[in-house]
Amino acid sequence: MKTLQGQVAVVTGGGGGIGSAICKRLAEAGAHIVITYSRSADKAQAIADTLEGDNHLVIQCAVDDSDAQVNLAKTITEHYGRLDILVNNAGITRPVPHDDLDGLDDDLIDQIFRVNFRGAFASVRALKSLLMADDGGIVINISSIAGRTGVGSNVAYCASKAAMDSMTRSLARALAPKIRMVSVAPGWVNGEYAKKMPPEIIQEQNDKTPLGRIAEAEDVAETVYAVIAHLPFSTGDIIPVDGGRPLGT
Description:
By secondary structure, the chain is an alpha/beta fold. The chain has one domain (8-239): 3-Layer(aba) Sandwich (Rossmann fold). It has helices at 17-28, 41-50, 66-79, 106-132, 146-149, 155-175, 199-208, 217-230; strands spanning 8-12, 32-37, 57-60, 85-88, 137-142, 179-186, 237-241. The chain has a seven-stranded parallel sheet with strand order 3-2-1-4-5-6-7, sandwiched between helices. Strand 4, helix 4 and strand 5 (137-142) form a beta-alpha-beta unit. Helix 3 packs parallel to helix 4 (106-132). The termini are far apart.
């Protein structure tokens, strides 16, 4: 059953590991997918070429470029005339030990907040009118349990995800009832970032997770789909996808 048949979904940073899994899951459900990217055009197009269905688009649009976001809205309006789903997936980070205050320099802090928080907000701002049309739409912010636990790749990353969750709550109230806002908050995900870590670090995370493993990108994608298709009365919520990791030691 194509539960999202004919709907249009924007997935920012859709060429990455989590983003591509989300694109595939929503396309399987019948949605037309708009993959946005900042630099990796070939990577984004390769994902689009594998998607089920048709009428998918690949558009260059860095989330920290507000003018590009406005142009994205125009392109979607001209091509589809509607937008039902926005998944704010684009994000950046870099490992910096939490006690290395000098290592977390101002430029990195500004870059993380510009992409992870301001970029997500700018996407909602630019696409709000489309999402509010007709029966309304939904925004899924790909957050992290780091926003709640304070444990993550660096202090600024944790803070940026906490800011994203706060935005989810604020905009859920401000944009209701036409737009639902939900954060999906993974723990460790077995993707591009995790694959750069030493195997013993990943094994430690597996061992400390009550469900015995870290998440796969498909776990995140399935949660995104479930929120859209099966949780129609949820908004302003932060939904973890962490295997119970905060319960571990």
